Amino acid sequence: MANHRSRLLRRVVVVVGATLAAFGVWLIFDPLAGVDLVVPDGPGSDELHRLTPERVLAAAGVASLAAWALLETLERVVRPARRLWTVIALVVLVVSMASPLFGVGLSVTNRIALILMHLTVAVVLIPGLPAPSTPRSAASREAISTVDR
């Protein structure tokens, strides 16, 4: 029970941390550096919308919660879930880069800010959400090596 509680707390902290990290990138670029950050309306659209703090927090929060939900689902269905979830998370990261890289009408600075927001969320979520790997004890390593002989 304590292990479940600590895992839950750790994952809540990671989700909040990823969300606040994206907001931190927005803070640096938009109000502090004076870059008016915008995002395309959708794939291939040349209509741009202002990137508000609410949009940053909502997008990063929803993405983080979706990552957590997927991990929880995979942990119930697949062994080892961590490896599969990490591959899926990396694929989602690559796909999410389409908008900052190829969005029409974005300045170079705007692209850099969006890319950094995506990477920042990924850098917090990908190593933080899965349960940390537990190193094998000396007795466990010895038992495995005995079986291998």
Overall helicity:
over 70%
The average pLDDT value, as a whole number, equals: 89
Strand order, main sheet: write it out: 1-2
Unreliable residue runs: 136-141, 143-149
Strand-residue proportion: under 5%
Q: Could you describe the largest sheet, including whether it forms a barrel?
A: 2 strands, antiparallel
Query: Structural class of the secondary elements?
Result: mainly alpha
Number of beta strands? 2
Number of helices: 6
Q: N-to-C terminal Cα separation, in Å?
A: 37 Å
Short description, anyone?
By secondary structure, this protein is mainly alpha-helical.
Key terms for this structure?
149 residues; mainly alpha; 6 helices
Please provide a written account of the structure.
With 149 residues, the protein is mainly alpha-helical. The chain has one domain (2-148). It is built from six helices and two strands, in the order αββααααα. Strands 1-2 form a two-stranded antiparallel sheet. β1 (38-40) and β2 form a beta hairpin. α2 (53-77) runs antiparallel to α3 and α3 runs antiparallel to α5 (108-128). It is elongated, with a radius of gyration of 19 Å. It starts with a helix and ends with a helix. The model is unreliable at 136-141 and 143-149 (pLDDT under 50).
Please outline the helices and strands.
Blueprint lengths: L1 H31 L5 E3 L7 E3 L2 H25 L3 H16 L1 H5 L5 H21 L9 H11 L1
Antiparallel strand pairs: 1-2
